[in-house]
Amino acid sequence: SGESNLSKEDIKTLFSGAPHFFLENGRRGRWYPQVIFPWDEHDPWIQHLRDRKPFSHPSFALATLHAHLPVPKEWIAQGGPYAHLYNWEQRDVTKRATFDLGVYEVPNMMSRSTLERGAIGLCHFLELPVADSGKYQASPHPQTSPDILRFSQMPATEAFDFVQSYRHPYCEVNNGTVHDRRKLLCEGPEGWKRIGVRDISFRDLVDRLEYLREFRHGLLMMKDAHDVETTILTRHTPRDLYHSLFTKFLYPPTPRMTVLGDSFGLKSQIKVLTEVLAAPGAWLNFGSVDWRFRVGQILWEASPHLDGDCLEFIDSDDPAVQSRVHRGLERKWLLIQMLLAAELLLRLDAIVRVGIVEASPSLIIFSDEVQLLDRLREGKVNWDIVATRRFLDSLTVQYHPAQPAPYPRGSSSSSNGSPPHGSPGELHRIFTMFGGSLKHKSPTDLTVSAGWSAWDCTLTPCHTGQQLEGLVTFAEKIGWPRVEELQKTLVSKLQPLEEGARLTLSQIFGTPVRNNTDVGKKKMKMKGNRTPSFRQVVLHLDDDDDDDDDDDGGRDSIGGWVSRSWLSGFVLPGPGLSYLLMGTLIEADREALARLGPVASFDGGFVLEGRSWWSKECIVGRVLASLDGVKTCMGWMSVPVLPWDAATQQPLADTWIQVSSLPEPPSEANKPRIKQGGRLAVHSTPLGPGTLSGEAFTMPTDEAEPQVEVAFRSLTLNNKIPATETHEQHGLVSDEATACFDLSATGTPSTLISFLLRYDVQFISSYECQPPLGWACYHCGSPIRRCQHHQHHQHHQHHQQQTLQQEHSRLPGHPLHRTYRYRRVPLADLATTRAPRRVSTGNGAGFEFEQVLVIDARGCATRETFARAWCASVGCSAVLGRASRTCLACCIREARAADVGIVIRLGD
After folding, report:
1. Of 525, 521, 522, 495, whose CA–CA distance to 508 is shortest?
2. Can you tell me the distance from the alpha carbon of 327 to that of 333, in angstroms, rounded to the nearest whole number?
3. Residues 6+ apart with CB under 8 A from 851
4. 219-260: pLDDT as tens digits
5. Are 624 and 641 in contact (CB under 8 A)?
6. Were both Cys, which of 410, 422, 515, 804 would link to 453 (CB 3.0–4.6 Å)?
7. What is the rounded CA–CA span in Å between residue 834 and residue 367?
8. Helix, coil or strand: residue 764
9. Do 637 and 630 contact (CB within 8 A), yes or no?
């Protein structure tokens, strides 16, 4: 009837405070998950509703490129969850905007720390299928240029011209070649020339990097808008920049690489720099999450490397190449990459500010040129700029050639007292080892002829205090033992040293780390280091326990490349930050490292001192995170549960753990949810399909808590590596993890129920909603009819409000459209319940869940763990909806938005 239709005022009253989920179409074909409250635009409290927690320390914000508010100091000191905006203090941040890349890490790391332990936010979940880890390759498969492949079929004149041009600069730029980075490095200057890079003087390289760092710092920290220098063009003309770039670092560009009519101008320089950095396979690709994590390995650790994909002396049989590798060839190549990206960054900033913002007639930018530069930078080069920004913000660069001893033990010198890396004695030993002839050259002559060592460049961190504070915050939040002792030890090493101290901060970070751990790459490969499922790292173990002056042992050591990466602040966005945090913590705790062993499994967990510690990357950690007594921070969980070995029936102790799991069964959809555009909003809109009538909606509510008791009994791991081999590696690889529970209803004996944690499912923390403004006129089980309503942001008379509250009760939640089907599953029946199934929507629109299963796990934390374990056993992700935060209707709609079939209701 006409009376049952809902008016605009009814809709606003009924659905105020209800989140609306949709995808926003962004640049480069990307979709961005968004949550809005369309009926609450005038309610200031709405901005506080979210599904995530803010970062608890400023250093943790290095994990993301998304905009966020700075972390107030009182959060760190007092651990408070929120603070009023007027109490926030502005930190020492940049005073001006810079070139906006429009690039962000995928998935969104801000949505990784949520209101529920072991869960992720909706944005993070939706972006997982299009994550950077699947988009970018750390080492792309090399490919020969198509011209070379058809060389035998070329006419004679064309073949002759091709041979003549093959050794010209830039001949392998934009010609279809995919380089092998290690092979290119070993080729030396002749190979680098083919992508336009000169054999750069190392002194010029370091000096130019520091010059650009200081200049950029001055621009960003300028006192006011009237400062004279606003871009690099205020100090140098375009021709000066051209001369500096193409006489010292790059070869002069060919006409095809420049912009027509601007051969010496800024636009041509930007185009050449972009094309050189975009040469496939020639450089580190920071789009790859592996290189974002491991970039510090090249900066701080000398070869040979015991893990990773770094250049080694065995990659070449040429003793001269092997010598360059040992002198830090790969480190120099990385510094060249940082330099070229910095040159590009300052030019882009100048061209946007002068040519676009100020519309200077001396620098005219056309729209097609902007589009061309965007296409050239797409992906890899944009991440180069992200990396060089972090590099310039975190480190100072200085040239300190031939720094003599002292070197910290366990760092640049080996335990047998061999000479420091890069010294004449070391070079002599290298050449002798590989049969090199030194008949006519003394070690000193060899050093002079060699001319450089990449370790002559000292990278000194600028923010060690903040990074150390973040490490201590992380340790305290996960309940790490001996936190105060570790803090004192690190502070004594990193604080400004008194006169007469052994080493300064620049000397500590300027000394390369050499890992003397007896772990070979063959064993690392066997344990899964090269597979995408496992991420293993060889931590730095100080080898000085046998020295007589043990009290002095490790005094100057701050760990390996993992610790230096974190403490330096050169941390790139992505999940690698959580690995660096835990790795630094373990390297700082020598007792823990000695007991666990150096081969760390950062996507698994470990057992130490009566507790187990799990990464959020591991399904075991995500399931156990809901237990009482669990502490979490930045993707790690400390759990008061010891796993048992299925073979020995004994609890594990002091060991690393890896757990294999299968990916969640794929849906029948042709593309992931995040690429389905408006489909997400249509399937989860609060208004539902069809007409807006009262009969179309119901009011779902939580029933009485289930009368069932659940007790967690054990976690059992099935070890698939032989015991002797496991003992050697200080770790266990499990192909099966089983969670066991005791389930009992009132007055009945308990039943043992076991769930095999087979699938790598996710748990989504529900987005907060706010109770609607309306008051119910009818019983909650009835259809919604035209309601009396009350808006608390309007000024109603007091006696009217009192009368309304006496006659009607406040709406317990938001209405749910009848087409959004759901079914409640009692906790006692969960063990025999199958996963929800999908049905075709018809008309070729794909598949969706026939109904959402609602599992009532309120009452105690173990019930939630029981429900999570069932989800992992059947292979279905779930939305975690706490009754005090999100109503049942909004949880069901969010499950439909995320395209998951389960909602787990949690108590207050």
Report:
1. 495
2. 12
3. 821, 822, 823, 836, 901
4. 887 755 555 668 898 899 999 999 999 999 999 998 888 887
5. yes
6. 422
7. 56
8. strand
9. yes
Query: Is the CB of residue 485 less than 8 Å from the CB of residue 234?
Result: no
What is the DSSP annotation of 723-749?
Answer: HHHHHHHTEEEEEEEEEEEEEEETTS-
> Exposed, middle or buried, 125 (CB in 10 Å: 0-12/13-18/19+)?
buried
Q: CB–CB of 816/700 below 8 Å?
A: yes
8 Å CB contact between 632 and 60: no
DSSP characters over 418-438: PPPTTSHHHHHHHHHHTT---
Structure tokens at 832: 């025999």
| Burial class of residue 149 in the structure, from the number of CB atoms within 10 Å of its CB (0-12 exposed, 13-18 middle, 19+ buried) | exposed
Please give the average per-residue pLDDT across 811-829, as a whole number. 92
Higher pLDDT, 29 or 576: 576
Nearest of 508, 517, 512 to residue 541 by alpha carbon: 517
Give the tokens for residue 675: 């690429």
Residue 129 has which token pair?
A: 């299928």
Cα–chain-centroid distance for residue 69? Answer: 19
The pTM for the full model equals 0.86
CA distances from residue 878 to 671, 809, 856, 881 in whole angstroms, order as listed: 20, 31, 12, 9
Give the contacts of 575 (CB within 8 A, at least 6 positions apart).
63, 109, 112, 289, 293, 617, 635
Closest CA to 867 of 626, 701, 675, 659: 626
Q: Are 68 and 54 in contact (CB under 8 A)?
A: yes
Nearby residues of 582 by Cβ (< 8 Å), 6 or more positions away: 600, 602, 613, 615, 636
* DSSP one-letter code for 817: E
What's phi and psi for 838, nearest 5 deg?
-95, 150
117 and 637 in contact (C-beta within 8 Å)?
A: yes
β-strand partners of 23:
33
Residues 509, 564: Cα–Cα separation, whole Å: 7
Q: Report how far Cα 844 is from the mean position of its chain's Cα atoms.
A: 36
Q: Look-up: residue for tokens 């509250």?
A: 805
- Answer with the residue of higher pLDDT: 565 or 422: 565
Domain boundaries, the chain: 146-399
Closest CA to 694 of 16, 7, 8, 6: 6
What the block records as the tokens of 308 is 């990773």
CA distance 701 to 772: 14
